[in-house]
Design brief:
0% of the residues are buried. The protein starts with 15 loop residues before the first helix and ends with a helix. The protein has a domain of 27 residues. The protein is mostly helical. It contains three helices and no strands.
Length: 86
């Protein structure tokens, strides 16, 4: 092989200074920001709950929860009393 390597240092990427000067920075305009905020507001508004639960319904659900807990406690107590001791 008769290839000789160049001893000069090459910068990577080439012409870095020129690339920075030609780079165009685009900014988001006021109209676009307003449209974005309006779109997000519409999405959050559309995902809200459409029906409020009545106070009676919530009270009934809580009573059902307490009754279920009581049934589970009674079943566990019965199970512990009927199992033989080791």
């Amino acid at each position: 092989m008769n290839t000789t390597l160049s001893r000069t240092r090459q910068e990577h990427p080439p012409q870095l200074e020129v690339a920075l000067e030609t780079q165009h920075v685009s900014r988001v305009g006021l109209v676009d920001r307003i449209a974005l905020h309006l779109g997000l507001a519409l999405i959050t508004w559309s995902r809200r709950t459409h029906r409020l639960e009545s106070r009676e319904r919530r009270a009934h659900q809580y009573e059902q929860h307490l009754a279920r807990l009581e049934r589970e406690r009674a079943a566990e107590r019965t199970l512990r009393l009927t199992l033989t001791q080791r």
